[in-house]
């Protein structure tokens, strides 16, 4: 016969309400009562039915997470962190991959955006960000944004200080003696891309150097490859390049090597993100690491505070990135003309 919450209450000698509070990690339960319930659960080998838990607390016990793609180790790291921290707090994670809305729809296509499906939503670097914010606010679904692209004063966000990351990446190259440093940015539509470029310009200007060699591209290997090929053809090869992400950096290195340049002996290259492959390629990539574990942990704490009705002042969390010095950057030795 299946054990239920009533059996746990009878075994522990406590009320169903108290048992429910223990199951939902309520902070108001006395420690002695919590131990009694946990002992009863262990002795009866009780596994709470999710539907029953939903009825008891009026919640689904599920937090949704929507993201653009899964083929990115930074996003993957954030999702894993969110999953582990939700699991530790007794919640389930439901994932939705962002899809384009239909032509006749005014709302983004996201099956999670229903009050009865999830208790709250974590929005990870969404492309339809404005539409998501509008819909979630209209439906009164608690939500937190990670890696937001716009400025939303009334929204709780967890972002990385990309300005600092761009600044430190450029300072790293300047510290190695480079003076002619180029930057390949992502699309200006992304707040992170704009901030990384602003950090680059600030570091160059502060050092009395010209930040004139900037190319706006897309976050992709073909972007870095094509822009670097163009610079090589025009004789505009800098001594160092700050790429807005690791994938762009891979394209840059490929174009340089095909043209006979050695990285980092002839040209230094630094990326951004610290994707999984960054330490597996040759040369191993110097990069700026995003604190993915912290991003997930803070987002979980914030969304659960909102779900549990705790005061929220629309927190703007900004985490610091970290410089990871590997093999693709070195001291300035002079640019070699391979033409």
Automatic annotation (TrEMBL):
CDD domains: HTH_LacI (cd01392), PBP1_LacI_sugar_binding-like (cd06267). Signal peptide: none annotated. It holds the Pfam family Peripla_BP_3. InterPro entries: HTH_LacI, LacI/GalR-like_sensor, Lambda_DNA-bd_dom_sf, Peripla_BP_I. Residues 3-57 form the HTH lacI-type domain. Keywords: DNA-binding, Transcription, Transcription regulation. This is LacI family transcriptional regulator.
């Amino acid at each position: 016969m299946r054990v239920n919450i009533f059996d746990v209450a009878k075994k522990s000698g406590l009320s169903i309400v108290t048992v429910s509070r223990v199951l939902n990690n309520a902070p108001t339960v006395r420690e002695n009562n919590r131990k009694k319930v946990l002992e009863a659960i262990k002795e009866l080998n009780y596994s709470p039915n999710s539907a029953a838990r939903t009825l008891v607390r009026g919640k689904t016990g599920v937090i949704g997470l929507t993201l653009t793609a899964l083929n990115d180790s930074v996003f993957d790291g954030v999702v894993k962190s969110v999953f582990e921290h939700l699991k530790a707090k007794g919640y389930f994670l439901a994932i939705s991959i962002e899809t384009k809305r239909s032509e006749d729809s005014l709302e983004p296509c996201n099956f999670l955006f229903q009050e009865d499906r999830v208790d709250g939503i974590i929005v990870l670097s969404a492309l339809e960000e404005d539409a998501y914010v509008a819909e979630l606010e209209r439906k009164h679904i608690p939500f937190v944004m990670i890696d937001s692209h716009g400025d939303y004063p009334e929204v709780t966000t967890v972002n990385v200080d990309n300005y600092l990351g761009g600044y430190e990446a450029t300072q790293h190259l300047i510290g190695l003696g480079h003076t002619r440093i180029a930057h390949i940015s992502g699309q200006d539509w992304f707040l992170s891309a704009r901030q990384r470029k602003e950090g680059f310009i600030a570091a160059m200007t502060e050092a009395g150097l010209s930040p004139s060699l900037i190319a706006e591209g897309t976050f992709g290997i073909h972007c870095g490859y094509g822009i670097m090929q163009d610079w090589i053809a025009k004789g505009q090869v800098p001594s160092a390049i700050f790429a807005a992400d690791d994938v762009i950096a891979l394209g840059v290195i490929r174009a340089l090597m095909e043209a006979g340049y050695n990285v980092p002996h002839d040209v230094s290259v630094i990326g951004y993100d610290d994707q999984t492959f960054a330490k597996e390629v040759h040369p191993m990539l110097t990069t700026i690491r995003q604190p993915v574990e912290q991003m997930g942990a803070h987002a979980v704490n914030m969304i659960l505070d909102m779900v549990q009705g705790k005061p929220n002042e629309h927190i703007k969390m900004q985490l610091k990135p970290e410089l990871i010095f590997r093999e693709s950057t070195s001291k300035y030795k002079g640019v070699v003309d391979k033409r």
